[in-house]
User: Which sequence fits this backbone?
């Protein structure tokens, strides 16, 4: 699945995204402000900002940049930003694997429900690490494949189907963090089964 395919899929989803996914993913988004531990003046990047559903939950005294590859999703986010008067938020169309920011730009980098919809999750996390200051927080909220045999088998079997509609059920959290050279600082379950997780890592060094 290419970045162009993902872009097309989410341009299509943009019309119904809030109706379908606002509530479904709400519990993870609601955890974000607490786990990000934001201070006034912080610079934060949200990768795959989508329609901007997390933006109203964040403090107004931080400087937020939201990027997304789908113009359709960004159009919805722009309307939300304008409607709520979020003048601390900037939005831009950008591929998360090629972030157009210098190294060590942000204090916090968030990816909510993004790393399983990209063709190369390792490349996305490495870019998040590069643009985050050393000691800054990377927060990844996502579905990861089950840690139990039958759950894992199920995730593997359905992933070719779910991939077509925009996400991969078979992403292994522990392999992802290992391949990126990260250590998990905080891990919180988001759903009752524990397959949806909020994972905070401290950025070890400038990439
Ligand atoms: C499931 S949505 C999540 C949106 C939002 N974070 C939320 O909590 O609702 C995934 C988003 O990631 C975006 N995305 C996918 N691949 C991307 C990439 N390579 N670069 C930037 N954004 C990407 C999609 O366009 C989509 O808006």
Assistant:
């Amino acid at each position: 699945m290419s970045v162009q395919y993902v872009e097309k899929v989410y341009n299509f989803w943009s019309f119904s995204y809030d109706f379908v996914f606002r509530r479904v993913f709400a519990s993870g988004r609601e955890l974000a402000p607490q786990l990000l531990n934001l201070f006034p003046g912080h610079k934060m990047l949200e990768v795959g900002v989508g329609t901007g559903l997390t933006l109203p939950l964040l403090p107004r005294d931080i400087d937020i940049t939201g990027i997304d590859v789908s113009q359709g999703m960004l159009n919805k986010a722009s309307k939300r930003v304008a409607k709520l008067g979020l003048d601390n938020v900037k939005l831009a169309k950008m591929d998360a694997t090629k972030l157009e920011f210098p190294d060590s730009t942000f204090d916090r980098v968030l990816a909510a429900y993004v790393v399983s919809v990209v063709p190369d999750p390792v490349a996305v996390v490495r870019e998040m690490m590069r643009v985050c200051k050393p000691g800054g927080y990377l927060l990844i909220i996502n579905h990861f494949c089950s840690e139990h045999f039958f759950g894992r088998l199920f995730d593997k079997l359905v992933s070719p189907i779910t991939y077509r509609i925009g996400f991969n059920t078979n992403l292994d959290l522990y392999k992802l963090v290992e391949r990126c050279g990260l250590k998990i600082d905080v891990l919180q379950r988001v759903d009752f089964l524990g397959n949806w997780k909020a994972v905070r890592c401290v950025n070890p060094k400038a990439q």
Remarks:
- The chain has one domain: 3-202.
- The domain at 3-202 is CATH 3.40.50.150 (Rossmann fold).
